[in-house]
């Protein structure tokens, strides 16, 4: 092989040689071998990490059709996930359009990095107690800048692929939200709502409210006695009176101690009297 080159889709490179390789020292083989090792190493890394990631997603049981990939071998290896990953990689190679597929893959990596940065920024802004970055000079603005750069690169290069990647990500999120998976992941949107509500309540106490902005705030103590057959809240009339007084615009805090294992029925009865918040 006298003129090592990397061919284009037409079968030849520019002047039948690799420009960077011709400029390398001491020999063009440095770039040729380096490119091969870099590509091979990245492929092995993805082939090792992707099956375990697929196995973790299947184990969380949020996407039902991925359940078979949750199984592992005796040596704790996701063999089915490895076969599925190798099949996808081989299928992409056989399609013969690696350049088109590479853009989509790059966008999914950029989406991953962008959301990691957004999560870090959100945790910092919300002051989550479990978020303690060790980097001395970390600031939430760095994460916002990183997320902005990821989205900017996506839409600046191929905006239609970027829209497809964002659409698929939104569809996966809405599917998991619709399925209602009860996992200990936490929800950044819920944390943001809680922080906003806390900030708003504290902001209201700074100044005396104007009479036009007054809203009734009631504290209701109810009797929580019940029978074994049905849950009987004896203060339903009191709750209805409070609902009429605030007319759906004020704040009513209802306190009652109910000893029961039928939490679903208790919550349904609370919904019947329009108690929006429920905790036990």
From TrEMBL:
UniProt KW keywords: Membrane, Transmembrane, Transmembrane helix
GO molecular function per UniProt: potassium:chloride symporter activity
Span of domain Amino acid permease/ SLC12A: 29-218
Pfam families given in the database record: AA_permease (PF00324)
Protein's UniProt keywords contain Membrane: yes
Regions annotated as coiled coil: none
Keyword Transmembrane: yes
Residues making up the signal peptide according to the UniProt record: none
UniProt xrefs under InterPro entries: AA-permease/SLC12A_dom (IPR004841), SLC12A_fam (IPR004842)
Membrane topology: Multi-pass membrane protein
Subcellular location: Membrane
Name used for this protein in its record: Amino acid permease/ SLC12A domain-containing protein
Organism: Panagrolaimus davidi
